[in-house]
Amino acid sequence: MGFWDAISKLLPDSIVKVDNRRIINIKDSKVIEINGNTISDPETVKKVFEEIEKNKNEDSLPFQVLHKDLVEDYFEYETVSIKEKESLKQLKEVLDYEDIESIVMARRVLLAKEKGDQNLFNNLMEQLDRNFPKKGRKILNLMNLKYFDELIIPFIDAYRTKYGEKEYKLRYKKFYENVLRFFPLAIFVANYTSEEKLKKELVKRLKLNVPYIKIHALGNTNIRKVENIIEMLRIEENYITKDDRITSPSGIQAQTFEINKRIPKK
Questions:
Q1: Which residues are registered as beta bridge partners of 26?
Q2: For 225-244, what is each residue's pLDDT tens digit?
Q3: Where do the domains of the chain lie?
């Protein structure tokens, strides 16, 4: 079945067969216009995007797109590298459509910055702020700091190992939502994060009197950094803590160290 045949089954004939036109105007992630008719039903919009995805590798898409930004945003991430294509595939398994779209759009902003295309960067930055005002810049910052590829995505396997196939997706989605909700209060310890840097970041957050701080680390070397700083600052003597560790089937360790409110002095 071709693209337009599939689309025709989703819509009334009055919309699809107008002078044999095939014009799709993508307004944003939730509203599209087909042959001058606005479509906002979430399920229909979702299925249209699914059909676009199926045809994305064709030499030319079998329709006219008046506003191509969103289509490019949605697929650009998959064409960057094999590693990033696999990363997006993993994320699609655990996150909602809107989450994926915001990630892809943030990635395009970062690519424009890396290429030095200031005009494109400015345009995409405006689009990111408009479409995802609450989380777009947070995602962009996480990508810019390399946390996405080095920690957030690898935690998918860690959650699958700990919670099993039936539960890990829901658990991971909550983890991801909390990362965005409390960013930049969360701390990510990567291979290039020194103990001094970790100490500085933790002390800064402790002064904010926030509900809790979570430190995420992947790999034995980074976990040891966390242990050293926690001991140095005597965190466990003064705060309520929780040390949650997971070991993947390949032997890689992941850690989430949670620091809660102070322990009352006697």
A1: 32
A2: 999 999 999 999 999 999 99
A3: 3-66
